[in-house]
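Researcher: Good morning. I'm working through a list of sequences from a screen, and I'd like to move beyond sequence-only analysis. For each chain I'm collecting a predicted structure so we can compare shapes side by side. This is the next one on the list. No need for commentary yet; just the structure.
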Amino acid sequence: MLNFFPSPLVGLIAGLLMTLNALFWVPILLVFASVKFILPFRTVRLAIDPILLFIAESWISCNSGWMGLTQRTTWDIEGIDGLDPHSWYLVNSNHQSWVDILVLQHLLNHRIPLLKFFIKQQLIWVPVMGLAWWALDFPFMRRHGEEFLKKHPTLRGKDQETTRKACEKFTLIPTSVMNFLEGTRFTPVKQAKQQSPYRHLLKPKAGGLAMALNAMGDKFQAILDVTIVYPDGAPTFSHFLLGKMHRVVVRVRSLPIPQHLLQGNYASDPAFREAFAQWVQQLWRDKDAQIAEILAASTPEGYKA
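Model: Good morning. Structure tokens for this chain:
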């Protein structure tokens, strides 16, 4: 454990280990991904994809290693036992920080298949990581605001088509499709701007979840509803590297796939869209209440280690 060092030194060590880990695994990923790109056949994909997933899971395991070496974090976790690494899951979580991704990967690695995130298109240019996300078939999305879509109506539904094509690839081998329903990280400013009816959440955006269920509903074993709470406040990525993420509470619920929401057309059927929205809003009300309960119970005196 290196967290007895001053915070700046801990951050330097953590950042260095994280960078070296990525620089080691990403070139290996790209070698195998290039084979799949050059030979885009189903048989090649079925042979190469498990290798790519093994490399990615090894990369995440090494991340967990340096996190344990440099961080002094108390983890309060419930609901991750009994999951199946050889099945398909639709994973949903609230979103407060880039650290959420490391938390989810750390806890769910080897318990379920590799998490596949929907990523903003511009992030493909992030050095090293953009290539890694491409190699692992993470879908890149162009999210447009309503005003932009009014001026360019032909682009409406483009992200839905991207989601559909991505989900077709995900049906070949066990995959966990990861969705942040809020679409962006929670902040009080965003909450106020949205006039969100939730105390601890932004308004959910149900389109991506609806499309994933429509495309792969028969594959998913369950929906994993994840709630992440940082009792001391959501850490920035730099605070995390400096070893200042002291407590994390995570609750995972395994929910049945809502069979009545698998067949409708979310884009063109207003009645189906309303039914789906009601289901999502209830999910969000439950999560908001759960976060409030966790925060109320997470005082320093009563915190569960």
